[in-house]
Design brief:
five-stranded antiparallel beta sheet; Jelly Rolls; 2 domains; single chain; alpha+beta; 14 strands
Length: 229
C-alpha cells in the first residue's frame, strides 16, 4: 500500500513509501524504520496519500501492535505459489488500510477505547503566529508527549539573505537564550528561506508553559504549534 511519495525537488522525487507485510519500505529499497520515517516527515520530504494515514504512521509505536511497529518476520506458507502469496498479501494490506481509514474517519477524538483499541486523538492547534520580522507569540501550555511545529516562509520581494529560526521556548527563559530551543536541526534551525518553503517537525518537550519565538530576516512567515488531544 502506498502511504506517501517523496516531494519534487528531493533526491527521491516521486518514489513511493510503502506499508507491506507489517513494515514500512521505500520503493526499490529496503525496510524503513520508524525513526527514519519520522525524520523524513520532519524534513518535509514526504507528500502523504492521506492525512489520516500520516497520523497513523507517526503513531505506530504508540498505537499499533508490535507487528506494525517493527519489520515482520518472514511469512509462512512456503508451499504456496508466488501468485497465491501476492493475492493473500494484497488482501491483508487492503483490509488493514480500510480498517484504519474507517477508524480515524468515524471515531471521536475523545471516544473511550474499547476491547483494547487505543483512543484515536487528533492534532489540536495550541498557538499560531505570523509576521515578517522577529516576534514572540502569546503563551500556551503543552502536555507531555509529541508536539508538532509547522511553519511556512516566503522570501520578501527584493530581499537578499532571507533566514528564519523557529524556537519553542519554555516560560522563564532568560532573554538572549531563546535560540537554545530552536526546533529541529540543520534544516529547521536558522534555515535559509527560498521563494516559498514549508517545514514540519515533531518534537518532544516536557509539560509546561511555552511561547513561540521566531527570529527572521527578509521573509514573511506563519507558524502553527499543535498537540494530539
Amino acid at each position: 500500500m502506498v502511504i506517501a511519495r517523496f516531494r519534487k525537488g528531493t533526491d527521491r522525487a516521486g518514489t513511493a513509501v510503502l506499508y507491506e507485510h507489517g513494515a514500512f519500505r521505500i520503493e526499490g529499497e529496503g525496510i524503513l524504520t520508524f525513526p527514519q520515517l519520522a525524520d523524513l516527515e520532519a524534513s518535509g520530504e514526504l507528500e502523504w496519500t492521506d492525512e489520516r494515514l500520516r497520523d497513523w504512521a507517526l503513531d505506530v509505536p504508540e498505537t499499533a501492535s508490535p507487528e506494525l511497529a517493527a519489520p515482520a518476520a518472514a511469512p509462512r506458507g512456503a508451499g504456496l505459489s508466488g501468485e497465491q502469496k501476492r493475492i493473500i498479501a494484497y488482501a491483508v494490506v487492503g483490509a488493514i488500510a480500510v480498517a484504519l481509514i474507517l477508524a480515524y474517519g468515524t471515531r471521536s477524538p475523545k471516544e473511550p477505547a474499547t476491547g483494547g483499541v487505543p483512543v484515536v486523538r487528533s492534532w489540536t492547534t495550541l498557538a499560531e503566529a505570523k509576521g515578517a520580522s522577529t516576534l514572540t507569540s502569546a503563551g500556551f501550555t503543552l502536555t507531555s508527549g509529541e508536539t508538532k511545529v509547522a511553519w511556512s516562509a516566503s522570501r520578501s520581494e527584493g530581499a537578499g539573505d532571507a533566514r528564519i529560526t523557529v524556537c519553542l521556548v519554555p516560560a522563564g527563559t532568560p532573554a538572549g537564550a531563546e535560540q537554545r530551543f530552536a526546533v529541529g536541526n540543520g534544516t529547521l534551525a536558522g534555515a535559509a528561506v527560498s521563494d516559498q518553503m514549508t517545514r514540519t517537525s515533531i518534537v518532544t518537550r516536557t509539560a509546561g508553559d511555552y511561547s513561540v519565538q521566531v527570529f527572521s530576516a527578509g521573509c514573511s512567515w506563519d507558524v502553527v504549534v499543535s498537540q494530539k488531544r
